[in-house]
Design a protein that fits this description.
There is one protein chain. The chain contains 15 helices and 16 strands. The protein is α/β, with parallel strands linked by helices.
Length: about 375
């Protein structure tokens, strides 16, 4: 099969979070199954550009990645060079997989796929949530859905969602949706015996007990809920992630008002071996988001044998409950406090939940398993 994925940004632009990591992991797993996988993307990396070739594809883990420049309209990722590349690449595809909404590469690739009668899936990556529209760019996004995304949705063979909850959120838009294709994100299975040792900074940080938050520093992640659970507890929270929204000052102000400034430590983004050591040594991972179409870090913590505490709005909570890998609690301070303290003080409880999560991931959520499930979906669409 010749599989084309289209995504506005890609490795090495890790600042954009989980979708880039999971899309590449899926593509690499599909390539490992013997299929020809191409990614069409841009070289945008924040205010600058990734140091990648633009004149020929770059081979990453068996995936052929085509990067295109965005000289103008960077917020929409509009690239005339990409448009020409898509007209060349899409006609030879068996199936096209789109990974965004509200951005030019998606609507452009969808239109070209429809023109050449190539089936395509649309993965909104948690962006089709009306409640989130009210927080940011409501009028612009509503207009885009009605004027442009409606046609993209109408022409899609499937809406690829990572959970039933994500499809339920999208259904509130009031526009016709294609049938759901529910395929979760997978997770890398770490081998701690072969991992390089943690950096000195992380090694020193993990010598004391801590609850870990790992992800983008954003209002959506519910860090205000997490901080509100800290007063009158011994809990120490390590917050690891990048802040592209400038949310840190508000977070620090809340911590001062609650009198918990000494209980939190913001360490910036981490990756590679340091990320896995932080996960594995934590008393538990906390993800208290207001909306999360999946929650990749939840299954990463499970893979590391670390229990998790999540709110019901985190869609990966179905895997937490199915595995018995942690606790799903409301985002109010008292239930969160009780859940976090249960893993802070009870080593046996922590060990049982951690091992249950690791076993579940090994059986159900390896990238090889997820890739094979996705290939079945492609086949059902009559991929050419």
């Amino acid at each position: 099969m010749r599989i084309v994925h289209v995504i506005p940004t890609y490795l090495p632009a890790l600042r954009y979070g989980g979708p880039i990591v999971t899309t590449h992991a899926l593509c690499a797993a599909l390539a490992a199954e013997g299929h020809h996988v191409q990614v069409v993307t841009t070289n945008v990396d924040g205010p600058g550009e990734s140091a990648v070739p633009l004149d020929e594809p770059l081979l990453l883990d068996g995936v052929h990645v085509h990067y295109f420049p965005v000289p103008h309209l960077r917020r929409l990722y509009w690239s005339s060079a990409m448009a020409r590349g898509l007209w060349r690449i899409v006609p030879g595809a068996s199936v096209v997989h789109l990974h965004s909404v509200f951005l030019a590469p998606t609507s452009l690739a969808a239109a070209i796929a429809r023109h050449h009668r190539v089936p395509y899936l649309l993965a909104p990556r948690g962006a089709l949530v009306p409640a989130l529209f009210r927080k940011k760019s409501r009028l612009a996004k509503t207009a885009w859905v009605q004027l442009i995304e409606r046609q993209t949705l109408r022409g899609a063979a499937r809406l690829h969602v990572t959970s039933e909850a994500e499809y339920a959120d999208a259904s509130q838009l009031g526009v016709p949706l294609p049938a759901a294709c529910v395929v979760p994100n997978g997770v890398e299975l770490p081998d701690f015996e072969s991992l390089p040792p943690p950096s000195g900074r992380v090694d020193a940080l993990t010598q004391r007990s801590y609850v870990l938050f790992l992800g983008r520093i954003s209002w959506k992640k519910g860090l205000d809920r997490l901080l509100a659970s800290l007063p009158s507890t011994p809990l120490r929270v390590v917050i690891a992630g990048n802040d592209d929204e400038g949310y840190t000052p508000a977070l620090l102000s809340q911590a001062r008002a609650l009198g918990v400034s000494e209980q939190i430590e913001l360490i910036g983004p981490v990756s590679g071996a340091d990320k896995w050591w932080l996960l594995q040594r934590a008393r538990c991972l906390a993800l208290t988001s207001y909306n999360e179409n999946f929650g990749n870090v939840v299954v990463e913590a499970m893979a590391a044998g670390t229990p998790v505490v999540v709110t019901p709005e985190v869609a990966a909570q179905t895997h937490v409950q199915g595995a018995g890998a942690g606790l799903v609690v409301q985002g109010d301070p008292e239930p969160l406090r009780r859940a976090l303290k249960s893993f802070w003080t009870d080593d046996a409880h922590r060990a049982r939940a951690g091992e249950a999560g690791r076993a579940y991931v090994r059986e159900h959520l390896s990238w090889r398993t997820v890739a094979r499930t996705m290939l079945e979906q492609y086949a059902q669409l009559g991929a050419r």
